[in-house]
Amino acid sequence: MKNLSCIDDQYFLRNQLPAIFFYRNNVAMKGSDPVKVIKEAISKALVYYYPFAGRLREAPNNKLTVECTGEGVIFVEASANVSLHQFGDFLYPPFPCIKDLLYAGPASGVILHSPLLLFQVIDELPPCMTNRLDI
């Protein structure tokens, strides 16, 4: 068990924070499966950052700790029928259908006993994003 610092264990920080990042294909990676590359990189990083594969628990006095259970993170692969290049440089918040883009994990909104990290790789964007641009 690893105790969170007083800075990290503030009550108002006890929530999940969704973040979305868009990346264009790198021509130097042609022939590589980006999902496989990302999955392998996460796996290698978790060797050194193993607490991220654990779960948050609440100790006495409402103190949060990370139990290094090795249960892992959630990795979701998704696809859609729109490519990122169709958006040009238009990828700035607010996104019209963020809830349609992001996977809602088994315990979305709950931080205790849930995976600390969730990764989702979408090969292409969903149709709701194209409606914003009338593509």
From TrEMBL:
Stored InterPro entries: CAT-like_dom_sf (IPR023213), Plant_acyltransferase (IPR050898)
Gene3D superfamilies: Chloramphenicol acetyltransferase-like domain (3.30.559.10)
Listed GO MF terms: transferase activity
Pfam family name, one: Transferase
Domain of life: Eukaryota
Entry keyword set: Transferase
The family this protein is said to belong to: Belongs to the plant acyltransferase family.
Protein name as annotated: Uncharacterized protein
Organism of this sequence: Aquilegia coerulea (Rocky mountain columbine)
Organism phylogeny: Eukaryota, Viridiplantae, Streptophyta, Embryophyta, Tracheophyta
